[in-house]
Amino acid sequence: MEERLLGSEAKDISDLKERIWTESKKLWRVAFPAMLTRVSQYGMFVITQGFIGHLGKVELAAYALIQIIAVRFSNGILLGMSSATETLCGQAFGAGQYHMMGIYLQRSLIINLATGTILLPVFIFAGDIFKLVGEQTDIANEAGYISLWFIGILYFFIFSLTIQKYLQAQLKNMILGWLSAVAFVVHVLFSWIFVSKLNLGIPGAMSAMIMSSWLIVIGEFVYLFGGWCPNTWKGFSSAAFIDLIPILKLSISSGVMICLEFWYNALLVLLAGYMKNATLEIAAFSICLNIIAWEFMLCFGFLAASGVRVSNELGRGDSKAAKFSVKVAITTTTIIGIFFFIICLVFSRKIAYLFTSDDEVAESVTSLNVLLAFSVLLNGVQAVLSGAAVGAGRQKVVAYINIGCYYLIGVPAGLLLGYVADLKVKGIWMGMVIGVVMQSLVLSYVTWKTDWDEEVNKASERLNKWLLKPSDHQESNDLLQ
Fold this sequence. Notes:
There is one protein chain. By secondary structure, the protein is mainly α. The chain has helices spanning about 1-55, 55-95, 100-125, 125-130, 135-150, 150-170, 175-195, 200-225, 245-270, 280-315, 320-350, 360-365, 370-390, 395-420, 425-450, 450-465, 470-480. The longest helix has about 50 residues, at about 1-55. This is Protein DETOXIFICATION.
């Protein structure tokens, strides 16, 4: 009997290992291209910051303000709005409703183009806005000038993010990874030529970013229209203008979820700008946040992967597979987080000099290494849990959690520790970490208590409600011809 029991246990362990290995392969199939895409695309911002940072402290602080506040503001909205595409296309792909994916893409592009245009004044009047909220005049003026260059990046976000979610949902995002990697190399080359060799300064650095970014969009259009998505792209259709209001509601929920998270860091940078030595504080804080954000791009791959895997399995009707995928993803990102936790503790000073030549700024970054290490450790769990919520279409729930943990706990804690306890930028960051810890704990509890069978039913109802028969889709195409 003991031999039989041991044999059964060994078989169970073997089956579990096989399930983990199979699920890991499925996750990495989405995660690796998503990582390559996000690391490369965000790397362009980091490279640009590096070139501009070596022009001077004011230029570095101004770029940090516009990137972390205005760009993060708009990117958060558009990334969040695009998450609706991820939910709908992922569940449609799992349910075999391939013809609907192209329609969902077109609906999201319509909504995101309108949203991006509404955001234009933020970039046009950024300098005046920063002055209005009390930022130093020299930093605000320089930020206002840089923000005008970012208008081209705003429309890059609209097309790139939406098409990215569409391709990702059908496991065709490797092309995005390669396009982004090539664009990153081109960006480094252009930045070196324009800034270091031709001494074009800020115009050179920003021109390099715009040209490299739009290279990605051109590649996405070639892939989409060139016949590489025959099952999901059937051409432009008037059906894209049907059911825009329900899509808009889901997009807004998605946008709020992501924005509250992105704006959280941006608000803390803004608070750092009110300190006595604002230029130093903003420069050091922005470098740390860029390091966190770049590491988060790796974790973002698993946010995307868990979103795709959960949405595919819910669309397919397999609740157990969706739940198991979340467990494997959390374990994997925790291991990645521990690795970068150690890296940040050991090499923080060397990392700082990648962004600045100023010893005072580098020293300030080094003094924040413990908080930096804990922040990168938390990124993984937070990303996977948010991705699972996107896959299930539960963005509204996460939005409420973000409001409570970030803005009712994290920001007040940061203000108290930074200004009342006089811990300065360290105190502000401690408040940020407290908010992230609370968010991770609440999201973990919500995910643990989730009835995944009920989520399958909700996904089925959503897809059936907006389903157009292939014949209806063809009739809509005929109307456009």
